[in-house]
Design a protein that fits this description.
The structure is a homodimer.
Chain A: H1 11-23, E1 32-33, H2 36-43, H3 47-59, E2 63-66, E3 70-73, E4 79-85, H4 88-94, E5 99-110, H5 113-118, E6 126-136, E7 139-149, H6 166-173, E8 178-187, H7 190-196, E9 203-213, E10 216-225, E11 230-234
Antiparallel strand pairs in A: 1-3, 2-3, 5-6, 6-7, 7-10, 8-9, 9-10
Helix pairs in contact in A: 1-3, 2-3
Chain A binds a DNA duplex through helix 3.
Chain lengths: 235, 235
DNA sequence: GCCGATAATATGTCTGCACATAATATCCCT
DNA sequence: AGGGATATTATGTGCAGACATATTATCGGC
């Protein structure tokens, strides 16, 4: 009898109690746990409350739920790490560092073939190609290499991208419905090394990101971070 | 067919309609949107249904909600990328590759100072130190360097870690309540290069992970992936 | 004009009920 | 025995109403 008298009447409390049973292995991986109605009776709350708690835990990957089959403890808890992808400036300033930004180049070009395929663009679609350097406390922090589909965001042509980064401008002025993001490591090119103040060949953390609005490609960017950069989160 | 034909009566439909208004910028960043009761009236559904939809969008970072203040479109949509952190074997096999695993070394050592501090361990706490190589299609895929707090998981001493990876054994036999995870890039050491079949100094994608159960440190691991590895997700 | 008490308001959540939906178990007819 | 119709079951969701809670607006006294 862990808790006999005090009842568990809100979903956070239900969640906490279920978590306790998972962590103490009172309910073990693969095991079927009591159904919502039973738990509701045990906890002295409504089924909807139990549902809310179990649903949240299932979203977090700790439980597997299937209609009729019931709820069981996840066998391979695919823990989901959620990374907050925010604007670089906000991230840098959030660490208490000063932020600065320099536009390195800006040109309008026909889309190169591999990119055209990735963005599913037509033949002569013109793209805006930008290169920029983001600085933290005056040091090179990240090199941004970005292609923007000018047809999708015509207003970008009039934007002053020497003061505000395309990153930030797009967040403010163009919304997107979907996107994919990839994380990898790459060796610094001579150019990147110069900008980031490191040796050529140094290991850089790289984020590749492409965003869409419905079927229309908005932008594709490669962000290469200075050595030592670390993207951190809790699970 | 309902009377007007286009009523929005379930929370997914409400969410979709709200998303449409966000993407078409009918509701712009920073703007206050109608309250739940009004939307419920407009959509012809219950307030709880609207609540469910808006809450999900707020969790995703697209809306900011505050009691009494109302709901407004997020100014800086901190999109959350959720990464599925699963067992290496499952991930490799999921790509249709064959998986293999080799334990390289296993020794029990007193905790080195920096690690002892990070895991908040006492003085002579003995740790199990493991090094292992994970292979995909016979090629070096990832080098695992792991420290395990033997006091927290005594059963690990009897585990046959030459056949099943510590990664997997721990997922099955030890639960954890919290953890932190960091992503970065690092240059391959001579040893790592030999194991992964790449040049020394090559850029490797690295995951550092430490997990806890309540206040008790369970394990801390560094996973260095072969060049070309890419962690991908959608947002 | 300032400040503290009070009212108003939007979201947050619980409840009890109903029905929907998916998956499984069972029965029945051949 | 086989296979399809049917019943059963657990979760998924919707609804109306109520109260809780956080936050802002307002009003009255000084």
């Amino acid at each position: 009898m862990t808790r006999s008298g005090d009842e568990i009447r809100n979903w956070q409390a239900v969640q906490a109690e279920v978590l306790r049973r998972l962590h103490t292995r009172q309910w073990r991986p693969g095991e079927l746990i009591p159904n919502e109605a039973e738990l509701a009776r045990e906890f002295g709350c409504a089924r909807a409350t139990v549902n809310r708690a179990l649903r949240a835990l299932a979203e977090a990957g700790l439980l597997d739920r299937r209609r009729k089959a019931g709820t069981r403890v996840a066998l391979h808890p695919v823990r989901k790490a959620t990374l907050d992808i925010s604007i670089v400036r906000i991230e840098v300033e959030g660490r208490g560092q000063s932020y600065d930004y320099r536009l390195l180049s800006r040109e309008e070009l026909p889309a190169p073939e591999p990119l055209r395929a990735r963005l599913k663009l037509g033949d002569g679609a013109p793209l805006l190609h930008l290169r920029a350097l983001h600085l933290a406390d005056g040091n090179g922090h990240m090199v941004e290499d970005r292609w923007i589909n000018a047809a999708a965001v015509p207003a970008i042509r009039d934007a002053d991208l020497s003061r505000i980064s395309a990153n930030e401008w797009l967040v403010m002025h163009a919304s997107f419905s979907e996107g994919d993001i990839g994380f990898s490591a790459a060796s610094a090119s001579a150019d990147e090394a110069r900008l980031l103040g490191c040796d050529a060949g140094a290991a850089l953390f790289v984020i590749d990101r492409t965003t869409w609005n419905r079927d229309l490609a908005i932008t594709s960017a490669r962000l290469a971070f200075a050595p030592g950069y670390r993207m951190q989160t809790v699970i």
